[in-house]
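Dear colleague,

Following up on Tuesday's group meeting, I ran the structure prediction for the three-component complex that the binding team flagged. I've pasted the input sequences exactly as they went in, so you can double-check that nothing got truncated or mislabelled along the way. The structure tokens for the whole assembly follow below. Feel free to forward this to whoever is handling the docking comparison.

Inputs:
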Amino acid sequence: MPELPEVEIIKQSLQKSVINKKINKVLIKNRNLRFRIQRGLEKELNNNKINHISRKSKYLIIHFKNKRFLVIHFGMTGTLHLIKKKKNYQNTNLSFYHSTNLPKKHNHIVFFFDNFKLIYNDPRRFGFIKFFFNKNELLRYFANKGLEPLDSSFNLEYVKKKILNRKKNIKNIFLDQSLISGIGNIYANEILYYSKINPNKKVNKLKDDEIKKIIKFSKYVLKQAIYKGGSSIKDFKNIKGNSGSYQKEFRVYDREGESCSTKNCIGTIKKILISNRSTFLCKYCQK
DNA sequence: CCGTTAACCTGAGAGC
DNA sequence: TGCTCTCAGGTTAACG
């Protein structure tokens, strides 16, 4: 499901509900996510109070009062559901593929709080959770991840350093989380369209002003997407069950055959494959 | 070290 | 209806 903007929306909606709340109990129904869930994790989480929630690229980080951390990655189809206990409770209806009911079959983890429970649901099980006993462990885990574009240090100097002597094309650079983090297939396509760069362009051919454009539009597209509540393609909804609307702003992603939206451009959006991932572009605009 | 590919999963939608 | 096939917001182990 989520790239950086969607995880940011999850963070914001989660923050309103769980700050200072204590986990009473954790039930893990299926430990086999992308990575097998650590043994004894339930015990570590029991009676822990949440201090705050943060996000790093596509990762959600739960900070506990006792200085321990739980990291959640949502893979392709992971979602969090907040279910209130009260009688006229509002089922969050964070349904998968438009189903109106919670797909209980894929509820893998349940966090119980006093007045609500939080459910991690993930049909494809590409997501994962990981517990850290201290800040050093946490920092070590993120040490080999690249900066996200919204970081203030994400600038020309940084990107040039990261792509130095690389032979990959710019699209694959965007998807390589050790170089640039937080961007996935949707936003890579959108950013390159705005930057007027062909996704297949080798990074060693990029001029400084092209890199500057990429940096500028990386920040722009991600901020816009957050402002619009993220993108809801099939199943993304925030913690309250509301959809985002950035998908309405897509210029190229999933718009094969449509006219290019750049003024006076006669191009049509094409779909090609790069490293086996769908890539959308206007060949007239993007050089 | 670098770049590419296959593998991990389930479900929706298209085509027949 | 129902079968088969392709495709989907991601990451990483394994290989050349």
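Residues 93-100 of chain A have pLDDT under 50 and may be disordered.

Cheers,
M.
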